Q: What sequence folds into this?
């Protein structure tokens, strides 16, 4: 039931209400000179009996140009603190959605004997979001709308729960005065004044909900000694409210209620004002003083967040710092940058190679245990018989082969068959060394030297003289990383030499090519088992000669 | 101060040169290179399990390397080790300080760690002789909150803190082995490279840094975000880094090209990223946001291919198991959910 001439008035009224809300912050309660609206007769109970059309109210103020709502936002454009970024984005949307020409139709709706001023339906909001943000999926529009509603930027006029429904439910927009970007942290005294004043006004729509009544009772106990003061403040607020006209009051009351629904949510609802405690300390509050919703002087603050030891604020810009920075920058400059095209190729190639191993992209076989509740996939992984797919992965890189215990085992066996396992055993020993408790590192480092590098070592490895020298030096003060260079060198050797041969070897190829059925019965020997058994039995048997010839 | 002026000029000139060097290798973009690849089909993961038991906001979770157990930390002052398949609680460890912000599982499965506003990293031994889980070590030296910790082994752990530093500790002796200083804002998150030689940290100075553990130095710094970096992770091949920020975007940086490859953003996403995890192939990026959802991105095409909507409050942490089978999300609504 849109009434075209009304809409303009509504917007203007809302505008003036918002101006008033802002002014209220500064003015004293007694100072009523700033009220622009003509005073109306006192309101009694609902519903309206008269037919006071808002357009009959004489506007005593000159028509103000509709200021862009954005100017109402108190987010400092340079404020980059975490919540403010989100608020800024939301406020942009909230401003646009209320635009006279391009926004949603905000209207006064006639219902029974009353008028419901300045509302829009949930469906209108969702539709507008879909159009404005180019969203095809209504669910996504609902999600964004719910997010905005949860922060209290618009609210259902007949519910304390701040959610959005895609139907004919009526919603109203919040006054910028109450926007979260104002860094409100309203005290319980304010809340007490609010609840108290609600009980003074004889209107069904202002009746306290159960949880509010409980809250009020609790606050009365907590503020027993200053309840007289709170009562007086509430009375003063009621007096001010009475001076406003009916429609305006309906709107203001609902906006005020929505504000408290954000800061004192219905039990069970998410409190959107909760902040990540890691960010609390850094939240910028443009108002140094904790301000009261009702213009009270600052009371003692009750902090609910834990006391944090003020953390070290990082020093900036001493001469030493800049010198360090220059050193660092020089090192960076020396480093060779790879071409974007190459790097992109490499990333793409990696994902393509591994996509078949990604359960989120490719369904695993025989099945994903999480979806089918059948653990056979995991049983197979744990068994001694790797699947073909798994064996294939060992061929991707030496790293993959070594990452898989079965792959590592097979590679080791292969090397043993060639009498060249010392490299891998050295590499594994150094990996172990790096994970050891500090006390044992020294001894273990010496053991490794004795086993692999000393003169006449039982498992002598081949290091170039440079690495050998370096390592020998490191061993004078043995540490976790004493063998890092040596390990890198040996790794490269294995990669280019023995690993390549391993991939071409019969033992690997057989596994890779074999069509294997999952082994269900015990006691059935697979060719892999037979192989490892035979190698284990004897390193000098005739069979071995045969194997060496074939690989 | 003529000398300071000169030094600053020198630093600025070097920065310009680095920017030029980065530009010089921009012969293509990831988008161009991936142009011929079709977007991954819609990814629809369902909640398979809900882990109930925490009584307050969950701030962190971490999978064990066995892909079955995981540990979570909540502001109810408990560290819970879950068997994610049966949803049973294997251990429920009461903490001295309830303001916990991070937790970690050692690769061996023997230890877990946690920390928070107490500025300490507490190590717990899960495999103690008498079966009780006890504090094994309390690593104290940070002057700010503990935002993240990750084990290198049972002997060493790396922590990041609100005091703008990261530290490598020797667990046995409880001492700091290396302090990695350089960030100009609270360090919020860290991740260790697949080969355990490097780690990356994201901070409130909007940058991510790559550190060489052995050399004890910062190798590279990546910028571009417009707000705090809350989450960071390695791309599975170890050559790229993914960051998530309060500016509602995630970014992919390549270590060898020394610059940003792509940004994951959408005008419909207005809330900050709290956590992220790549799938095992790296093709998918799962990111948790302040708006209660997890968005799944095609990492190569930077398009959203899925949403996980199931939590009633902020998603604070996310992790993909090492076998890639399952993703676990933790939320301020006190629940953990397993999805796939």
A:
């Amino acid at each position: 039931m849109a009434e075209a001439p009304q809409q303009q008035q509504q917007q203007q009224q809302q505008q003036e209400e918002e101006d008033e809300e802002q002014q209220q912050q500064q003015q004293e309660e007694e100072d009523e000179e700033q009220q622009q609206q003509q005073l109306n007769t006192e309101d009694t109970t609902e519903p309206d009996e008269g037919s006071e059309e808002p357009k009959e109210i004489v506007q005593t103020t000159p028509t103000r140009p509709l200021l862009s709502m954005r100017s109402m936002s108190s987010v400092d454009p340079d404020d980059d603190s975490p919540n403010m970024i989100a608020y800024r984005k939301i406020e942009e949307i909230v401003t646009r959605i209320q635009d006279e020409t391009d926004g949603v139709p905000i209207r006064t709706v006639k219902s029974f004997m009353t008028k419901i001023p300045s509302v829009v339906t949930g469906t209108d909001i969702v539709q507008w979001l879909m159009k404005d943000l180019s969203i095809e999926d209504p669910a996504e529009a609902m999600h964004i709308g719910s997010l905005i509603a949860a922060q209290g930027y618009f609210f259902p006029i007949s519910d304390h729960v701040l959610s959005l429904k895609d139907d004919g439910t009526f919603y109203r927009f919040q006054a910028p005065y109450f926007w979260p970007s104002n860094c409100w942290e309203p005290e319980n005294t304010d809340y007490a004044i609010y609840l108290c004043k609600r009980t003074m006004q004889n209107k069904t729509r202002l009746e306290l909900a159960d949880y509010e009544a409980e809250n009020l009772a609790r606050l009365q106990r907590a503020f027993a000694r200053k309840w007289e003061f709170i009562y007086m403040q509430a009375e003063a607020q009621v007096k001010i409210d009475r001076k406003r006209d009916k429609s305006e009051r309906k709107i203001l009351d609902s906006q005020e209620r929505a504000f408290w629904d954000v800061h004192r949510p219905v039990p069970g609802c998410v409190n959107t004002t909760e902040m990540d405690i890691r960010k609390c300390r850094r939240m910028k509050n443009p108002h140094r003083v904790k301000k009261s919703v009702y213009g009270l002087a600052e009371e003692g603050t009750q902090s609910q967040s834990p006391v944090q030891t003020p953390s070290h604020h990082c020093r900036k810009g001493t001469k030493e710092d800049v010198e360090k920075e220059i050193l660092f920058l020089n090192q960076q400059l020396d480093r060779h940058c790879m071409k974007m095209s190459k790097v992109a190729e490499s990333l793409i190639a990696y994902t393509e190679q591994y996509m078949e191993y990604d359960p989120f992209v490719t369904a695993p076989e025989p099945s994903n245990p999480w979806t089918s509740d059948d653990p056979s996939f995991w049983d197979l992984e744990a068994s001694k018989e790797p699947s073909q797919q798994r064996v294939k992965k060992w061929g991707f890189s030496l790293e993959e082969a070594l990452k898989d215990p079965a792959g590592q085992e097979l590679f080791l066996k292969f090397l043993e068959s060639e009498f060249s396992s010392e490299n891998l055993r050295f590499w594994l020993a150094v990996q172990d060394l790096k994970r050891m408790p500090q006390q044992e590192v020294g001894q273990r480092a010496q053991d490794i030297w004795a086993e692999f590098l000393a003169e006449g070592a039982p498992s002598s490895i081949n290091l170039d003289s440079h690495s050998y020298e370096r390592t020998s030096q490191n061993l004078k003060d043995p540490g976790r990383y004493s063998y890092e260079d040596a390990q890198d060198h040996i790794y490269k050797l294995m990669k280019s030499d023995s690993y390549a041969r391993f991939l071409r070897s019969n033992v690997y190829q057989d596994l890779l090519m074999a069509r294997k059925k999952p082994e269900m019965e015990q006691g059935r020997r697979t060719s892999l088992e037979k192989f490892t058994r035979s190698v284990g039995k004897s390193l000098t048997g005739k069979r071995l000669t045969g194997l060496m010839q074939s690989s | 101060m003529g000398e300071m002026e000169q030094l600053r000029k020198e630093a600025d000139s070097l920065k310009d040169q680095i920017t030029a060097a980065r530009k010089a290798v921009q012969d293509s973009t990831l988008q161009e290179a991936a142009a011929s690849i079709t977007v991954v089909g819609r990814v629809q993961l369902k909640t398979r399990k809900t882990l109930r038991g925490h009584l307050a906001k969950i701030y962190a979770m971490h999978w064990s390397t066995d892909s079955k157990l995981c540990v979570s930390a909540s502001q109810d002052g408990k560290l819970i080790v879950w068997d994610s398949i049966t949803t049973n609680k294997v251990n429920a460890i009461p903490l001295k300080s309830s303001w916990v912000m991070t937790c970690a599982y050692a690769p061996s499965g023997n230890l877990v760690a946690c920390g928070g506003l107490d500025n300490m990293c507490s190590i717990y031994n899960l495999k103690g002789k008498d079966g009780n889980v006890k504090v094994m070590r309390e690593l104290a030296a940070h002057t700010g909150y503990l935002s993240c910790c990750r084990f290198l082994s049972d002997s060493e752990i790396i922590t990041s803190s609100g005091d703008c530093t990261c530290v490598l500790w020797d667990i046995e002796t409880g001492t700091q082995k290396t302090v990695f200083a350089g960030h100009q804002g609270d360090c919020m998150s860290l991740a260790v490279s697949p080969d355990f030689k490097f780690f990356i940290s994201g901070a409130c100075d909007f940058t991510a840094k790559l550190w060489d553990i052995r050399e004890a130095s910062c190798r590279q710094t990546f910028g571009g975000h417009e707000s705090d970096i809350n989450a960071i992770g390695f791309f599975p091949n170890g050559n790229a880094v993914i960051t998530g920020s309060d500016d509602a975007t995630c970014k992919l940086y390549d270590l060898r090209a020394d610059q940003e490859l792509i940004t994951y953003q959408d005008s419909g996403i207005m809330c900050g990223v709290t956590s992220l995890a790549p799938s095992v192939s790296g093709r998918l990026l799962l990111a948790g946001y302040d708006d209660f959802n997890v968005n799944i991105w095609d990492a190569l095409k930077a398009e959203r291919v899925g949403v996980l909507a199931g939590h009633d409050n902020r998603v604070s942490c996310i992790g993909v198991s090492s076998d890639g089978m399952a993703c676990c999300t933790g939320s301020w609504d006190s629940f953990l959910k397993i999805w796939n």
Summary: The longest strand of chain A covers residues 114-121.
